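Structure ticket #2291
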Amino acid sequence: MEKSIKRINTIGNHIVGSLSSTTNSMTYSKAQQDKSKDSFKPTNTDLKKLFEYQAQQEELNKKEPFHLTSIENETITLTLNRPKSLNVLNTNLFVNLNKVFQSYRNNPKLSLMIIKGNGRAYCAGGDIKELSQQTRAIGLLFPRYFFSKEYNLDYTAATVNKPRIAIWDGISMGGGLGISIHSPFRIVTEKTTWAMPEVSIGLFPDVGASYFLSRLQKDAIANYIAITGKSLTGADCIEFGIATHYVHSSKLNELESKLKSLVHQQDVNLIESIINEYASVPPPPAPLLKDWDLIAKCFSNRYNSIDEIMNELSRTNTQWSNDIISLIRKKSPTSVKIAFRQIKDGALKSLEECFFMEFRLAIRSLSNNEFIEGVRSVIIDKDQNPKWDPQTLEDVSDEYIDHYFSNLPSDQEFPIGNDQIYMPPQ
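Resolution: structure written out below.
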């Protein structure tokens, strides 16, 4: 089979600057948002609970490490090591992986980082069970701790100006993409299942997705991924410029060994030539191409609202479009509207600005019951019957969504680059 020599567009070429109850059907207005939760000052009791939880997690990490690192010649390999949980990223990992990326960035003796997962998943995303349970146990301090640590990790990973290879073998979703999507080399396999499914649980595609999804080259693909939450195959990821190389999973160990033995001095041309020895064209066609004409028609960036997309889907009136309408109607209406707008806004923002925007969205999303209800329905009770509030897209006004995107008080904004915030005194 012909080798895949052509380099797919990279997402990460950016310049780094300085540092549950239901209601009657109704249209929600900004006045009904609980703005008091925008300003939050943790009590000593809140901090004590958080520090105790951090200590408990670190003890678990010592017994069975959440991640593994190994160095061979000039290559560091970072392996996510929670296979029973599909390698989801918890807050302990956010803190410690940030240190790993910073160490790699600052160590002149290291020339390559390989990022991968242990088991059948690369990473199934952030640990939403932890986020839900500890928000209940600790209170509103926990989401601030969770997202400040996660997004600072993502920002560090995105701005490391050294070669990285992400191996998306198996389930590759959400938070795991945040630490790897900006890698110059992004490998998929025949086992890859790639998705940003957050709208199903009352969240939105975060970890910098406002930035990286909005910069995919083909019109409509970002809206489709963000709004539907549907998964892509490895072949889809190659077709739409999300991944750079397709390598059969049976060849990964040999590829890693050769990279570790030969790579020196951050030689990206050598890295690429080695990957190309093992890369191939994925078996055609990419599954998403079967519906691409309809996706391009119904999810185009020319639409100015989710209502316009839903109207186009209705006018199309095919089995595919009707199924998509039904799928979107099952998602959190608030999350769907946020997802649409964040892609629009993210296309015009820097990476840093996207993280500030997403932090505001995350804090507001955890200040109501939407996420807690989504996790209950999908992860805990698994009844797949969330009671969203507001209930429908028509109930969610633009004014209601505007509040999610508005600035937080200046002392509550994303603490970019602050590794010490919400950590116990040294």
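Closing remark: The first helix runs from residue 44 to 63.
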